[in-house]
Structures are given as structure tokens and as C-alpha cells.
Design a protein that fits this description.
Layout lengths: L1 H18 L13 H28 L4 H6 L4 H25 L8 H7 L1 H29 L12 H9 L1
Helix pairs in contact: 1-2, 4-6
InterPro entries: O2_lipid_transport_reg
Keywords: Membrane, Transmembrane, Transmembrane helix
Organism: Anopheles aquasalis
Length: 166
């Protein structure tokens, strides 16, 4: 019962965060700074509540379609490379900004099309950083420090079995 209430509240929070700015998209919308400020302040909290609840229930062993979706093996590629993207995008971006010697007129479509070289360099640098450094060091850590099972981590055997049986 408590799990269902938690899912209802977290689903409500993600729905409010996702659909909250929908009225701002109306052609007849009159800008309200209070509406914009409250959305900017509370939307990240609502997203975090949803994902915190998802991680919490997955950790407890509960399964549903949301947890199965976020547990998809295909996401491993993006999760492994995301930290490398975080590390490489700003130096590459600032290098390209520093290389610019004259003001440029910004247009969306040409900017997206002509900045693909920047996207490719970020992706290539991130891929190389992941393959050459992050993955080998993760494997080295696994070899040097083998992970303990749940029962050896301090949980009684029946508690560990109950967590995995759900």
C-alpha cells in the first residue's frame, strides 16, 4: 500500500514537472514571472523525487515497467560514456569559442548543421576517454577489490533472500 502511494505521488510529481509549462506554450499566454519562477524552482525537485523513488523501490527489489525500462541494458552505453561527455564537452566548447575571432550572426539551423563537427569531436573524445581510461580502471578495480555479496555486507541471509525475491 505504501509503495503504491509512493508511486502515485512520484508519478504526480513527474506529470506536474513535465506538463507544468504547457500553458506557457499557448499563443495567448501572458508572461507571468511567478509562474516561470515557481516552475524553475520546483520542476527539478519534482524530477528528482520521481527518480529517487524509482531508485529506492528498485533497490528494495520491487519491479514494474518503469524500473524495467530504466534497467534496460541498452542504457549502459550512454551511462558509461556520459561522465566522459561531461568531462570533455566544456574544454572543447571553450576551445571553439576562443578560436572565434569575429562576431557571428546566430541562426538555429546552420548552427546545428555546422556544429556537428564539435558534436563529433566531443563524442570521439568521450569514447576514447571511456575506452582507454574509465573502463580499464573499472575492470582493474573489480580485479583488485572484489565486490562483496549482499549477505557478507551485513544483511542476514533471509533478509537478502527477501529483497531479491520481490
Amino acid at each position: 500500500r505504501q509503495i503504491k502511494i509512493g508511486w502515485y505521488l512520484s508519478s504526480l510529481s513527474i506529470a506536474v514537472a513535465f506538463f507544468g509549462p504547457a500553458p506557457m506554450g499557448s499563443i495567448h499566454y501572458v508572461y507571468d514571472p511567478m509562474h516561470a519562477a515557481s516552475y524553475a524552482a520546483f520542476s527539478p525537485i519534482a524530477w528528482c523525487l520521481f527518480f529517487a523513488w524509482t531508485v529506492f523501490t528498485a533497490h528494495l527489489g520491487y519491479r514494474n515497467k518503469v524500473i524495467d525500462f530504466f534497467s534496460w541494458r541498452g542504457f549502459r552505453v550512454t551511462t558509461r560514456i556520459s561522465y566522459a561527455v561531461y568531462l570533455t564537452q566544456f574544454p572543447i566548447f571553450f576551445y571553439n569559442v576562443g578560436r572565434t575571432r569575429a562576431p557571428q550572426y546566430f541562426e538555429f539551423v546552420p548552427a546545428v548543421l555546422f556544429n556537428t563537427n564539435e558534436y563529433l569531436v566531443v563524442f570521439l573524445a568521450s569514447f576514447l576517454l571511456t575506452v582507454l581510461f574509465e573502463t580499464p580502471f573499472i575492470n582493474l578495480k573489480k580485479l583488485l577489490f572484489p565486490s562483496k555479496s549482499r549477505t557478507s555486507a551485513g544483511l542476514p541471509a533471509e533478509a537478502a533472500a527477501a529483497c531479491t525475491a520481490r
